[in-house]
Amino acid sequence: MFAERMRAVWVIARRDFVAVVFSKAFIFFLLGPLFPIIIGFFAGAIGASVQHDLDRAVIGVAMPARDGDKLIMARDAMADHMTGGVPDMVVIDRLRPGEHFDARAILKKRQLAAVVTGTLDAPVLTATQGRIDDWRGMVALFAARARSSEAIAYPDVRADVVITSAAHEHNGQVVTAQAGQLLLFLLTMLLAGMVLSNLVEEKANKIIEILAASIPMDALFMGKLFAMLAVSMVGVAVWGTGYGMMVLAGARSIPLLATPAVGWPLFLALGFLYFAMAYLLLGSMFLAIGGMANTVREVQTLSMPATMMQLIVFFLASFALARPGTWIETLSEVFPVSSPYAMLAHAAEHPAIMPHVIALAWQGLWVVIMVRGGAMLFRRTVMKSGPGRVRKRAANRAGNRAGQPA
Amino acid sequence: MGKEADVPQNDPPQDLAIEARGLVKRFDGTIAVDGVDISVPRGAIYGVLGPNGAGKTTTLRMLLGIIDPDAGYRRVLGTENPTEVARRIGYLPEERGLYPSMKAYEAIAFLAALRGVPLAEGRRRARRMLDEYGLGHAADRQIRQLSKGMAQQVQLIGTLIHEPDLVVLDEPFSGLDAINQGRLEQLIRGLAARGATVLFSTHVIAHAERMCDQVAIIAGGKVPFAGPVDVARDRLRPQVRLETRVRDGIWRAALPTDARCDVKASGSAFWYFTLPETGVEPLLRALIEGDAGILSLSIERAGLHDAFVAIAGEAAARALEEHREEAEILAKKGRR
What we know:
The complex is a heterodimer. By secondary structure, chain A is mainly α. Chain A has two domains: 56-147, no CATH class; 166-384, no CATH class. Helix content of chain A is 68%, strand content 6%. Chain A is built from 16 helices and four strands. A four-stranded mixed sheet of chain A has the order 2-1-3-4, sandwiched between helices. The longest helix of chain A has 33 residues, at 217-249. The two termini of chain A are 41 Å apart. Mean pLDDT of chain A is 81; it is low at 386-406. Chain B is of the alpha/beta class. Chain B has two domains: 1-77 and 165-235 and 303-336, P-loop containing nucleotide triphosphate hydrolases (Rossmann fold); 239-300, Alpha-Beta Plaits (2-Layer Sandwich), CATH 3.30.70. Helix content of chain B is 34%, strand content 26%. Chain B contains ten helices and 13 strands. In chain B, helix 2 packs across helix 3. The longest helix of chain B has 22 residues, at 314-335. The relative contact order of chain B is 0.14.
């Protein structure tokens, strides 16, 4: 019976896989991730340009002539030794003794981030509160340097670089865990949603009844899930190959992530397995929900809550990542739908293998439960009676014929 | 299986392809099928006859294991779980359906694969059967490119491709023109001739009467009659049609009280009545001795239609007739 069921799964999976992969729509599906990359590229370029303009902050200096020049010389001398953005300084006015300068008025007229007035002994910084917080200390340093008549020799600091530290390594692994979760979430979101509309074709083409009469319904569910999993593998392989080619061509760089606790080979293998589990768990749920829909429009209506549910699961796993050792982390690792995300993060941070064996078995059990439950629900609700149109007419007739059953 | 299952204690007779007892199905609190009993002998052509909404499709779906009954017992090809013998069953649902993007021969091979035929073998058989049905030219065309009639034939081939022991057809004649209905009748007889059991539902009494060894009459979710067609017809007394030269005479006392009379312009009279329990001989003797002048006499056995009216009631018969007319209109529209 098991072999018979697996054969049925294979027949359905093969049909669906061929139907999807050899369709024109699949090309667009493969091109899908290109669009956010292109949009990201342009948005990034525009954003960088805008940021560059914004970052060119200029501080105006309106001091007695010698003080202003000294301050700018001090700024130029120290800027090379300071990391981060050191704003430009320009003399906007050389004041005569006793002359008053209205810094507030000039800030309204000219494109200046701040204005320094007063003297080197008592400089005044006029700017918004944020700018003052950022630059107050820096202006004091420049003024102190400008007041000093002696040449200051900056000693050379010898660098003693260590590969890593405990804190750095842990932080790096957290970043790796986050990156793994994010990638897993993006892939699952991209692919699991496809199964929502998977049974609409069978229902719309009225082939569902033949399938239901020929094979067990859970074999139909399983076949569809595995077909879509295989389709997603094709997608991941194509995207991975594309990314690899871009890296080789020098267009993109490999993100530098800290080595996960279980090592890269096992982490990648677990990533693959957890992706399959996350996909199968969410996919079986979506398949069951989508199975209730009769039209594409109904599927579209269902897709919003389904996406929201995916987001909640992802947020739970991400939230748990920041709270190691708490009940939230345990919950996210045990709750079947969030378990793949949480356990992938676990693999990045902890070297133990056994929890993954247990987690995969647990998730696999839930895949079977969800598939069987979904199939049962679908079987109960999908075949209620004969064709709708004729049934409706019969009901109308029955209504016309007072007191007589249709 | 339902909790109220009336499971036969002894092994079921081996010559039954289908045996169902007390099948009940409710949908949202409404009873669709209410205690259906059916016994389909192996090798028989068996009709489920009833108007639309009577519970035919639901009964077939329960027998095939597509849905489970809320109560009752079913045994199909020797097992209580029909999905175990799905490979030996061919099913043509009332709502025909195929994947539109599949080529005709691929669609048939897919249906064969669902029933356990290897894909390569299914493709080979599909091409051969398409040739046999005169559709060889359409083998490589997508289903969406075929006419409705051709697609129906492709689906029928897909139903039979795995040479099933039991063929279940839900309203197989609907949507077919007269020529294709005749072909289908031939095909069904051919299936039975090679030993397959054919169970089909229909709302057309003529099809059931012409083809079936046995019928189940279903109305309002119940089966008031299930058995040989002859037994159904024998539920009614034969009708007598008598033509006499004269209208009146002492012989009239021998006619049953329900006799109706039509007087013709020539003076002769037609009499219609149910054959009396005593038979035709006493009546004939009275007619001859009374000098009624018998011009013609015929005794007609009741048809299945009359039997249906008597068994299922006038309302069900009227619904059956309306459904037939409706289906004919839809079939004409579909052909256009």
